[in-house]
Amino acid sequence: MTRALALALPITMITGFPPAPDIAPAHPASATVPASLPSVEVVGTFAAYRPGSTAITYDPAVVPAGATAKLSITRTGYGTDVAVTLTGLTAGRMYGAHLHVGACAADPEAAGPHYQNHRDPVTPSVNPVYANPGNEVWLDFTTDAAGSATATVSHGWDFRADAPPHALVLHAEHTHTAPGEAGKAGARVACLTVPSR
């Protein structure tokens, strides 16, 4: 009898915390889930935009021409590891960095919103239920005295083959987390295109 009552108690009474909000799955159970993408490595040297550019600096005072980025996206048996190594940036500075759904172009906004494993039905996404480091790929970092940095993140999910990320965008600030500000990280200061695969 005691066991049956315990099972009937609300989660809040047992744990002291309310249940996590419901998030619709990225793929409905009845849909065919697309295959995930293979591993990839992208290396770029940032420069001012020109047609065909794959590594663009939008603010040379923050991301100088000649700065470099190496992005690795590795599929594992449990999900995906993402790592970025950067050199030649402004020393001792905080940056935000995320994977975005669009490719880099002359307009920094062309890279679109952040890639999300569970897509926020509202845009722009500033709700921390969706705009958070567990549902997006956040690679924030602070450069050392030489202007170098490395950031890594591991996720227990793979990128969707039907809508993968196409860019690494560097931002002027670390990423905000408060409701209404979640996911924002200041101006887009550079962009590295992730090729289609």
UniProtKB/TrEMBL annotation:
<dbReference type="GO" id="GO:0046872">
    <property type="term" value="F:metal ion binding"/>
</dbReference>
<comment type="similarity">
    <text>Belongs to the Cu-Zn superoxide dismutase family.</text>
</comment>
<dbReference type="Pfam" id="PF00080">
    <property type="entry name" value="Sod_Cu"/>
</dbReference>
<dbReference type="GO" id="GO:0006801">
    <property type="term" value="P:superoxide metabolic process"/>
</dbReference>
<protein>
    <recommendedName>
        <fullName>Superoxide dismutase copper/zinc binding domain-containing protein</fullName>
    </recommendedName>
</protein>
<keyword id="KW-0732">Signal</keyword>
<dbReference type="InterPro" id="IPR036423">
    <property type="entry name" value="SOD-like_Cu/Zn_dom_sf"/>
</dbReference>
<feature type="domain" description="Superoxide dismutase copper/zinc binding">
    <location>
        <begin position="73"/>
        <end position="191"/>
    </location>
</feature>
<dbReference type="InterPro" id="IPR001424">
    <property type="entry name" value="SOD_Cu_Zn_dom"/>
</dbReference>
<feature type="signal peptide">
    <location>
        <begin position="1"/>
        <end position="20"/>
    </location>
</feature>
